[in-house]
Amino acid sequence: MEEIIFTDGLAAAAEEGIPQLYLFTKLRRLDLIRLPKLRTFCHQENSEINTLFNQKVAFPSLVDLIIVGTGKCRKIWHDKLTVDSFHELTLLFVEHCDKLSNVFPFDMVERLEKLETLHILECESVEEIIGLAGDHGLNSNESIELKSTTKFVFPKIRDLVLYKLPKLKGFYPKVHTTDWPLLKLLEVSECSKVETFAGEYINLRETQGESQPIISVPQPLFWVTKETFPSLEELVLDGNGNMKVWHGHGADPKQYCPKLREFYCPET
Question: Which residue ranges does the record assign to the Disease resistance protein At4g27190-like leucine-rich repeats domain (predicted)?
C-alpha cells in the first residue's frame, strides 16, 4: 500500500463533491506500522517529495502518533499544513523510517506545545531532528553566520530518546538554543556521527560584536545555557563512538543540569 487515501485522477471531479481537505476531527491515536511501500497518507498531484502528511489532511484531535517501518516516506510533514492540525500531539514515536533526513520541518515546531514524549529510533538517514525551511542551508559542521540565533522551546516534553541514528549530526543545522523545562529523561545512544553532546552557548555577537560574523567549530547536539535542562534527572549517553560529552569550560553536566541524579556514559 502506497497511499491511505487515493485520489489520483479524481481532481476533475472535485466540483462533484470530492473533498479538498480530509478532516479527522475525532481521531486521537494513529498507528502506521510496517508499511514499507507507504509514500503518503493522501495522494497529492505534482508532489515531488514523498511527504506522509500534506495539506490535504488534518488531525485536530490527534494525541498519539506512532510511525514504524514506512520505508518510502522522505518527510513526515509538509512545510505547509492546515492551521488546526497536530496541535494536540503528546506522543510521537518514529522507528525504522529509513528515508527520513529530518523529523520536523521548521514551521512544525510551534505546534508541539503539548508534546510530552519524543522517541526517534533506528532511522538510518536522519541527519537533524529539525530541518531548515525548504530544506536549504548549511551543514551542521560548516561555518555558520551569527546574524541571529533561533530558540526552540519544548514546554511539555518529559522524555526524549534518540537511538541508533547513524547519520545524526545535530539537532538543527544552524546556531540555536533549546529549552526543555520539564525534561526528565534524555537518552542519546548509538549516534556515532555526533561529535559533541553539549556545548556552552555564548552569544558571540554580544561578546565580540559584528567583527566575528561566523563560527567554524562543529556544532554540538545541544547548545546549552542555564535554562536548557533545569529538570533533567536521568542522562544516558551510550555507544556513541568518540563523541565528546562537553565542549567549552568545565566538563560536569551537573553544572547545567542541577537536578541530575543518574548519568550513564560508559565511554567516559
Answer: 71-195
Angular region, 244: left φ>0, alpha ψ -120 to 50, beta rest: beta
List CB contacts of 161: < 8 A, sequence separation 6 or more: 118, 119, 120, 121, 185, 186, 187, 189
| Other beta carbons less than 10 A from residue 255's beta carbon | 14
More confident residue, 172 or 211: 172
Report the SS3 class of residue 212: coil
Closest by CA to 87, choosing from 128, 44, 28, is 28
Model confidence, pTM: 0.86
Tell me the helices (H) and strands (E) count for the chain, helix number first: 1, 23
Q: How far apart are the C-alpha atoms of 186 and 85, rounded to whole Å? A: 27
Helices assigned H by DSSP within 183-224:
204-208
Q: Return the number of other C-beta atoms located less than 10 Å from residue 122's C-beta.
A: 17
In the chain, pLDDT over 70 holds for what percent of residues? 79
**pLDDT band, residue 212 (cuts 50/70/90):** very low
Pairing of strands 214-215, 144-145: antiparallel
Report the candidate in 256, 255, 261, 265 with the shortest Cα–Cα distance to residue 233.
261
Identify which of 216, 230, 151, 164 has the alpha carbon closest to the alpha carbon of residue 193: 164
Length of the chain: 268
